[in-house]
Amino acid sequence: MKVSQAVGQTIARMGAAHVFGVVGSGNFRATNALLEATGPDGQHPQFTATRHEMGAACMADAYARATGKLAVVTVHQGCGLSNALTGIGEAVKAHTPLLVISGDTPGGEYGSNFWIDQDTVIEGMGAIAERLHSPTRAVTDTIRAITRAKMNRVPVVLSMPLDIQESELSKDQEELLTNIAPPQLPAPAVASPDAVASVTQMLADAQRPVILAGRGSAQAVEPLRQVAELSGALLTTSAVGRGLFNEDPWHMDAMGGFATDGAAELVHDADLLVVFGAALNRWTTRDGTLLQNKTVIQIDDDATAFGKHYPVSITILGDAALTAHAIRDELEQCLGGTPRTGYRTTEVKERIAASLHWRDQVYEDNSEPAGESHHGKIDPRTLTNILDEMLPMERVVAPDGGNFNAYPAMHFRVPDNLGYSLSLGFQSIGLALSTVIGAAFALPDRIAIAGVGDGGFMMSHVELDTAVRHKIPLVVVVYNDDAYSAEVHHFIHETSNLDTVVFPETDIAAVARGYGCEAITVRQASDLDAVRNWVDGPRDRPLVIDAKITSFPSWVLAHSFTENE
């Protein structure tokens, strides 16, 4: 048996569910072997051929986040790997356990056009570099790569030198191949009894407690709601945790830069903030201002998360769900089962109702009607609010980066946390289209909505071909102001020369039609009537909306930009 065949079989038997990639000569045989093999469930891994390696990495990242299953990225050596790096970097920032298999030049062939020091490049991105060392270790090397990805919650890149791939597998490794199973993660641990008792007492004493949940607490939703009810706490989430508490009447949606002013004020005025599985980065905390003048307790199962961005009052090591259950049980005993009022007053409930959704906030519509000298532009808030009403709620939303991004990020409602796929960890633009396609493979019964700027769209539209081939019910909303507007609004007070970040008008709808998409150009609200035809079915191809928008500074960037960013 060739090593390439053994590698493919090993990955399948360790639970690979979906493979995304661009196949070249360096990864062809291993990829084919992977797709021909069966996993523990007796099924072959699915395969999606993408048009660019970065798209493959973003799709795999989103798929893995939505399903919890092992997703695989497959790329050629050298340039194939380098093309995937931004998507791998996003997965690193998101702590997504991915396996990337990459061809590699044979040892010593430094004159090859494909040669780069792959291990150094990979480690520089924050991923883990693994490789096939010899035919006598190839199965062991592959098992180790997948195990490290799962255990460390980070992408691992397995480099596969061509000479080793083409070698015959040793007999002992062939025997090992018959006894492979998916890696077993260690059992999660609850926080110490003293820590649980301490948090319980502080929740019982606080007048205005708030519980913040990140994506790391996705399995803790019910016990956290119960803790909040007993202690009188309000509920909020990080951006990536958006949707976790949608069913609770005391939730305030996302905390931080995406929050409405009313919701931010309620967090600001809290006297206790208990954080479960959230990073507390500058976006969640509005540059740390939302952590001031209160006790902040950070609970996480990863000690390296503590104080990573800002100092906190108390750190507690423990699994979010187990610790939430323990605190709930302790609170029930402490309070005799009688919930406190805490922050849950009638006045606060009215404030939450008034400030929950951005789509309900009063604003002056800045749409520009058509005139003799121009064709008109639509306010991005008006655009998104109308689309939010038109499109089915069974959806998954992926906002891209840019000045516009708060509109799709917050004016589109989401049904739950699975319905929100955020690819802003690396703060790159151009990732959302591929991200939402990956989420659509994980959640095929939902429509996919990508909110992108014209800049990000022009970087990534090749993956429309992938969406068309797979008949994905996808809506791409392009917030088109013919500029990199984050830079426009960041530097407009510094210089009048913005030619480097402003572009001529582009007919994005025509580009989309070339891929086989339905497409419309929107300049005013009435142009959106055509969306209803797509919604009514059969939704067998993507719809691209080229929205010519009015441009003004995003409220998120306005309070988050610093001189250094």
Automatic annotation (TrEMBL):
Keywords: Thiamine pyrophosphate. One of its GO terms (cellular component) is acetolactate synthase complex. One of its GO terms (biological process) is isoleucine biosynthetic process. Its cofactor is thiamine diphosphate. CDD domains: TPP_enzymes, TPP_PYR_POX_like. Gene3D superfamilies: 3.40.50.970, TPP-binding domain (3.40.50.1220). It comes from the Bacteria. Residues 400-546 form the Thiamine pyrophosphate enzyme TPP-binding domain. It comes from Enteractinococcus helveticum. Belongs to the TPP enzyme family. GO terms for molecular function: acetolactate synthase activity; flavin adenine dinucleotide binding; magnesium ion binding; thiamine pyrophosphate binding. Residues 1-111 form the Thiamine pyrophosphate enzyme N-terminal TPP-binding domain. Pfam families: TPP_enzyme_C (PF02775), TPP_enzyme_M (PF00205), TPP_enzyme_N (PF02776). This is Acetolactate synthase. Residues 197-326 form the Thiamine pyrophosphate enzyme central domain.
